[in-house]
Design goal:
The protein is of the alpha+beta class. The protein is 21% helix and 25% strand.
Length: 242
């Protein structure tokens, strides 16, 4: 999912835009102080969940990422209550806990993160479990053609074809930038599809379901491309991972 909406927010109050622009200008220097960066990041993530206009996505973040959520509140999950359900057209449905995912073979991918809004975070490392390994463990049935992803925010969903899902640079990510993925970044677990725009990398991942056809996700239902390939990516290759 995108960390911000692709299209401009219609009907947003001009006064609020001006206020946020002013705040952004003052905060830009403040947020660059290393001791304040983490707190500012948490503020942006929290504010995006109660801002129906999406204007908080205009505020600067020293990490380069921007935040946006379409729901008023997203529950926080951790080792005690996080679950990832794998089902659909598979022989062996399974629900994974966070410790179980951490115990599986981990893969590392370093790639630029690019949003449809134009912002980019270069050479961003992600680590997690290859989606292909999870699908293999579940035993995809012959009629399986695609994968649908659901999220515990209760709103977002995403999709990949089975061929895309099996690429080595597509993973169920647990770490980003060599740290556990925070709630603000869609943690504790998110999808990461390296060769695609960031809206394809669904935050707050809670479900993986194998389907017989591609089911458009939240952003695709609102006009985004089904595939979301980045320019120059090998669309038929296997990707690259360490």
């Amino acid at each position: 999912m995108s960390d911000r909406r692709k299209d401009p927010v219609e009907g947003a109050p001009i006064g609020r835009r001006a206020m946020l622009a002013t705040l952004a200008a003052g905060a830009a220097g403040l947020a660059t102080a290393p001791s304040l960066q983490r707190g500012w990041e948490r503020f942006l993530g929290a504010a995006s969940q109660v801002d129906s206009t999406g204007l908080t996505g205009l505020l600067p973040n020293p990490g380069g990422f921007r935040y946006y959520s379409v729901v008023g509140s997203v529950p926080r999950k951790d080792d005690t209550d996080y679950e990832l359900r794998v089902d659909g057209l598979v022989d062996r449905p399974k629900t994974y806990t966070l410790p179980e995912l951490r115990a599986m073979r981990q893969t590392r991918v370093v790639h630029d993160v690019l949003c449809t809004d134009g912002w980019r975070v270069e050479n961003t490392p992600f680590e997690g479990v290859r989606l292909a390994d999870i699908l293999d463990a579940a035993g995809v049935r012959g009629e399986g053609r695609a994968v649908r992803f659901t999220c515990f925010d209760g709103a977002y969903s995403e999709n990949l074809t089975l061929e895309q899902a099996r690429r080595s640079d597509v993973m169920v990510a647990l770490n980003m930038q060599d740290k556990p993925i925070t709630h603000e970044h869609g943690g504790p677990v998110r999808l990461y599809a390296a060769p695609m725009y960031f809206y394809k990398s669904a935050k707050w991942l809670s479900g993986i379901s194998v389907t017989d056809k591609v089911i458009p996700g939240y952003w695709e239902e609102r006009g985004y491309d089904i595939d979301g390939w980045l320019d120059g990516e090998d669309r038929h290759g296997n990707g690259s991972a360490a």
